[in-house]
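Exercise (ungraded).
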Amino acid sequence: MDKTIAPADVTATYLLGLADDALIYTQRLGEWMSRAPQIEEDMALGNIALDLLGQARALLTRVGELDGTGRDEDALAYLRDEREFRNVHLVERPRGDFGDEMARLLWFSSYQFELYSQLTSSTDEVLAGVAAKAIKEVTYHRDHATQWVLRLGDGTPESHARMQAALDRVAPYVDELFTDTATDEAATTSGVGVLPSQLRSAATAYVRSVVDEATLAMPAEPRRRARGGRDGIHSQAMGYLLAEMQHIHRSHPDATTW
Amino acid sequence: MYGNDFRDPDEQLNAAEGGALDQLLPTATRRGEGGDFERLVSTDGRVEPRDEMPDAYRQTLIRQIAQHAHSEIIGMQPEGNWISRAPSLRRKAILLAKVQDEAGHGLYLYSAAETLGVDRSELLDKLHNGQQKYSSIFNYPTLTWADVGAIGWLVDGAAIMNQVPLCRCSYGPYARAMIRVCKEESFHQRQGFELLWTLSRGTERQRAMLQDAANRWWWPALMMFGPPDTGEAAKGGHTEQSMAWGIKRFSNDDLRQKFVDMTVPQADKLGVTLPDPDLRWNAERGHYDFGPIDWDEFWRVLKGDGPCNEERIAHRVSAHEEGAWVREAASAYADKLASRSTGAVA
Amino acid sequence: MSEAQTPRAEWPLWEVFVRAKRGLSHVHAGSLHAPDPQLALRNARDLYTRRGEGVSVWVVRADDITASSPDERDSFFDPAGDKVYRHPTFYEVPDDVEYL
């Protein structure tokens, strides 16, 4: 990241990463509606998706104020191209089975839990406000993932094997959550943000405690590690996700309201 | 929870908002005399789960409540189809919350059905193998974004017409579930109208989308009230018995007429032409006249030959089957917990 | 417990009671299915309080509820009907005595 970057731009870029994580994960969670293992679980996943969408909207609105472009939440969500999205790869992964989703949710909510716990004291008041609200939501998300990882890990032999396989599949996407970028460093220096690397040990300790109690094993160090999401380098799945999310909005360029 | 800034907040938009529900609440919650079934039903009392009731009454309720619940669950699909593509984040949030409500309504209703001594899993099996139906309206596809609005406005609007009287159904648990459903459903209808109202003030293509959706959903919405059941058609139907039992309060035809009367002015407001050349105000009757409904289409779709019948059931069955390992795991875990705590006590 | 038991895909029924606000009793809201108490409580939260309807939730296994039977209604509840002396209006006191 360029050293001469204006502080407002650093903040905007930093917030965009958090916003895109929440938005893109909403998109994936929304795919579960009418497909959950039990109807009660449709309700639960719907609530989590709505919480994340609320975070994304508040953060995107803030980004539009800070970056000087005057874009609103929809301009940011619908009119950016793939390379401009700053989310981590974990959230864009195509939907797998319910075990995959709980493995993803456990890691993501553990990360967000540590993240928002610290961001309540951000010097950006809007971000601090979002964090204060989000921490309650994320506490529930993390608990939800915990409850399910325990049940799937310590349930039947089949569910044990499937939950372990899901944890293994998600492992390559974990490192990116806790990797610092130049923007993270600049945002931390200015008091707006927090270094992802500082969240790693607490989040990992939490996940490990759940995995242990669930009679599962922490995956070995993955051979491959996803990287580059914060620089707009995504997986091939991302293009399809955006094509679907954006197409109605974009096919009506002269529409001013929906 | 979502602001509606498109109209006067005191203006009535639908039956549930218009105080009809509040009028029903006192009778729906009346204590009742207790006593034998016939007396309860004839005095507008409430039958409660452990009361004695005729088997035919029980079976009718199970069938009707289950079909109602199934409709909510299958109804998640046509709208869920648009969650990923909602053209604004505000609409995405509304739609997510709405589809989630459908799941919730399904659960309230299964819960009511279960008080009659059936298990939800039995009912779901019957949905999956086609022994029990769901509302045929959901066998139509949602082809454009405007369809999401049309479902809210017309389909949920029609549903509310049907459901408000059910808030004082003679069977207590069903009536209570319906009160909860109706309160939540009024948000559904309003968001649909608001969505369309926005399109109506938008670009030419947005307005065309709105008109197209109204064209496709109008007649299926009228069919939702069911086949004619007044006059000659009343003979041999279920309506008479259901009315005597206090399960049904108005005939299909009366509800349909009420719906048409309520909806035509709303269509005018939206600048939509409803696809019926015979639709016109009849001052003598004090109602709108409307053209003949294609009941062949109704029966055809009901019997499986609709655009989406197979797709809807296949989707539902696959979710159920793909989730079996999860449900089994949770049961096994619960057994382990129970045996551990027994072990600890012993 | 034997590990060989066939796992059940069906979950038991729970009754849900919600306290709408502080100062009020928990009231029966409906039922739901869940495999165990923890998930029953969470499902109840997601199903019955998503519009802010509650500040506290109870869940009880439906099987664990003992209910009076309608057959016993006469013997259970009718005897209370003639005990008018349990109600304050039974007693006649002078009109000019306050705080009674």
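Further reading is listed at the end of the chapter. For now, observe: Chain C has a mean pLDDT of 86. The interface with chain A takes residues 7, 11, 32-35, 38-39, 42-43, 46-47, 50 of chain C (CB under 8 Å).
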